[in-house]
Specification:
Rossmann fold, seven-stranded parallel beta sheet, globular
Length: 272
């Protein structure tokens, strides 16, 4: 019997590339989507890639639905890839939006992990892969809530990894840089909706930077292959930076530049 791996946020981008890659590796790959239309899109993409992927309808912010799906699938592996674009200055993001960010990218992944752990522990084997970001290691203006969620998932994953190690469960953080996914379009659209903000000029600079950088972004397949390695390696690396930009930012921006210099560079580039 093939081992079941559930990937959340499978409708596009990294999630879609991941469910296809895991199917290629021989897993019973299951992707969560929020609508039937998205499920059909995933099935078509999988068929075009020559693999079979199952889908489940799931809103990861629905605790009851999460419990039902995990109990039904009893997965060997869990890939928490569902995301939410939370572009905007801290001052411009209200409580409701902030809660949705944290619910989607912090509480939901940990809820799913908590639900899956008894099944993994029973087998003495399992993998939990949490999709972080280089933004889990650095912080820049105008995406503070998104970055807060990634910093949080890093801390929680570090704690969980040690807590469940003796049960044979491996916990891995994937930390991508800039890859061509829909989250950038969502971020641009969100910034455009905040056009009346006092941060409007900074948003326009950020939008321009996103559009300029698009051609340099890599295909999300690179991230999917990193997930595949995390699922198949005997002793997977607990942290995997994916992309040259992620490696450069983590090593140069974080380790070499003083905070005052980073702040000044950010303010100059965004006109803050």
């Amino acid at each position: 019997m093939r081992r079941v791996v559930l990937t959340t946020g499978a409708n596009s981008g990294i999630g879609l590339a991941t469910v296809i890659e895991l199917a290629r590796l021989g897993f019973d790959s299951v992707g969560s989507v929020r609508t039937q239309a998205r499920a059909r899109e995933v099935s078509r993409a999988a068929a075009a890639a020559g693999v079979k992927v199952r889908t489940v309808r799931l809103d990861v912010t629905d605790a009851g639905a999460c419990a039902e799906v995990i109990d039904r699938l009893r997965p060997f592996g869990l890939v928490n890839s569902a995301g939410y674009s939370a572009a905007g200055a801290v001052e411009d993001v209200d409580d409701d939006e902030a809660r949705l960010v944290l619910e989607t990218m912090v509480l939901a992944p940990m809820r799913l992990a908590r639900l899956a752990l008894p099944h993994m522990r029973e087998r003495g084997d399992g993998r939990i892969v949490n999709m972080s970001s280089v933004y889990g290691l650095i912080t820049t203006p105008l995406t503070g809530w998104y970055q807060a969620s990634k910093h949080a998932i890093e801390a929680l994953s570090d704690a969980l990894r040690v807590e469940v190690a003796r049960d044979g469960v491996k916990v891995v953080l994937i930390e991508p840089g800039g890859f061509r996914t829909g989250i950038w379009r969502e971020a641009t659209a969100t910034l455009e909706r905040r056009a009346g903000s006092r941060y409007g000029p900074a948003y326009r600079r950020a939008e321009s930077a996103i559009r300029t950088a698009d051609w340099m972004m890599a295909d999300p397949g690179g991230v999917a292959r990193a997930v595949g390695r995390a699922m198949t390696a005997t002793s997977p690396s607990p942290r995997q930076l994916v992309g040259y930009d992620a490696q450069a930012l983590a090593r140069v921006w974080n380790r070499l530049l003083p905070t005052e210099i980073k702040d000044r560079l950010a303010r100059i580039s965004l006109g803050l």
